[in-house]
Amino acid sequence: MTLIDIFNDRYEHIGTEDKKEAHRRGSWHRTFSALAVHPRNRLVFLQKKAPVRYSFDRPDYADITVGGHYHAGESIPDGVREVHEEIGLETSYAELHSLGLRQTAITLAPDYIEREFQHWHLLPLQGDLEDIPFADAEVTGLVGIDLDDAIRLAEGTTTTIPARYATRTDLAVSYAEGRLTRDELVPSYLGLDQLYLRLFVADDRFCAGQRRHLFW
Q1: Which partner from 23, 105, 158, 165 sits 20 to 30 angstroms from 41, CA to CA?
Q2: pLDDT tens per residue, range 6-61
Q3: In whole angstroms, what is the distance from residue 164 CA to residue 157 CA?
Q4: Cα distance between residue 51 and residue 60, in whole Å
Q5: Mean pLDDT, residues 124-141 taken together
Q6: What is the pLDDT of residues 154-194, one digit of tens each?
Q7: CB under 8 Å to 110, separation ≥6 — which residues?
Q8: Model pTM greater than 0.85?
Q9: Whose CA is closest to 86, among 127, 38, 36, 126?
Q10: What is the pLDDT at residue 66?
């Protein structure tokens, strides 16, 4: 059982609850998310999750680089542990750049309701895809894409872009060139508040040297 803090819809703390129960009941809780970017090479990295992680059928989308729930009692900076847990990199919260808070609610299945206060960040990386060890069993791969291509894909001016894939099996990690299609992105991140596009545009401003007011 993993306990998480739960809140009312005004982000006021009201107690703790088991994570699975919080999703079943649709309790408001908070999460940590980060999109990794290589500022000099203008690359962004997306994550592929292991199958059968949810109680419902979820396609193998190219998701945001790092994301997870805060444990009960953790502070906002404590969420940086997810970077090490999911992609195997040691970093401090001071190295991240906050993009602010996203409050969102969506029913993904009858027993899986997401009502989240999502704390979003940019995670600058200097290495290439091969330098990311991603050690979490929940992560089966990473996808590296050019930032300008990512923006075009998110805004819908193209439906497929070049991509470099890192895929983990039981034996090793393999690397291959391929293509990423718009259908492989999380649909709710394309619609509603256009989360992918807003994150990629924030990346673009960061790569251009902007360090303040990166909010979407």
Answers
A1: 158
A2: 999 999 999 999 999 999 999 999 999 999 999 999 999 999 976 655 555 567 89
A3: 20
A4: 7
A5: 85
A6: 999 999 999 999 998 877 889 999 999 999 999 999 988 99
A7: none
A8: yes
A9: 36
A10: 96
- Alpha carbon distance 15, 151 (integer Å): 39
Three-class SS of residue 113? strand
Chain centroid offset of residue 87 CA: 11
Residue with tokens 């303040």: 212
Euclidean distance between CA atoms 70 and 68, whole angstroms:
7
The number of residues in the chain equals 216
Q: Which is more confident, 119 or 212? A: 119
Q: What tokens does 78 get?
A: 């404590």
Locate 89 and state its tokens.
């990199």
Q: Identify the residue whose tokens are 């006021």.
A: 12
Query: Which amino acid is residue 190, in one-letter code?
Result: L
Residue 155 three-state SS: helix
